[in-house]
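**Discrete fold encoding**
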Amino acid sequence: MAKHEVTIKAVAADNASSETKMGRRFGDLAVIRGIIYYKLSPHEQKPFATAFAYGIPNFVPRTLSTICTWLPCFLAGYITFVSVEEAYRRSKRKNPMDYMYEVNPAIPEGCEPK
């Protein structure tokens, strides 16, 4: 693996440039004192450690404890949606009674099939 160094040129007050190394290799910059970094090793992380033991069994009590809050709103929204969609479909449908006495213009009178 190639060793990469990050360098910057710092200009002093007397305009003399000096080279400063910022770290040993790329991504390993110099230590800044007074700042605390918290890291977890990728080998120590367990993202689903308690998901199956506590998360799934806890789903039912949490849902039941809040059902009175969200269920009325959900039902009102669903009923509104269904009724509006049905009213829209009814408004777009043709009324057969409007066309009861209409004559087909493609067939001349007297030539109608029997």
User: Anything to note?
Assistant: Confidence is low (pLDDT under 50) at residues 14-18.
